Amino acid sequence: MPTIYEKRTYSVTVGQMAEVVRLYSTLGWPALEAGGFAKNCIGYFISDTGELHQLVHLWRFESDDDRRAFWKRLFENAEFMAFAKQLRPLIKTQANQLMLAAPWGSHP
Length: 108
Prior knowledge:
Layout: E1 4-12, H1 17-34, E2 41-46, E3 54-61, H2 64-75, H3 78-87, E4 91-100
Antiparallel strand pairs: 1-3, 1-4, 2-3
């Protein structure tokens, strides 16, 4: 099975992006790194044009089973879930998209 990429887009409540950035910087990312989860992360991005107030993150997994096991482990991680409890009220919507690499070009 080919590598799976997952794009997660969080629409942040207007006026709350600074708090989202603070929470990720001080709690979220440190929890991901401490738990060994950051290695699957390609990157986090904040929208600057188009639909604003969005936090987009890209993840890489070896298979769908790997992806499902990853999220299950992460959601069982107490440190990350303490962060998520504070983050969730700031998020209006979440959209997840699974993607496969095209058969040409470079891939992260």
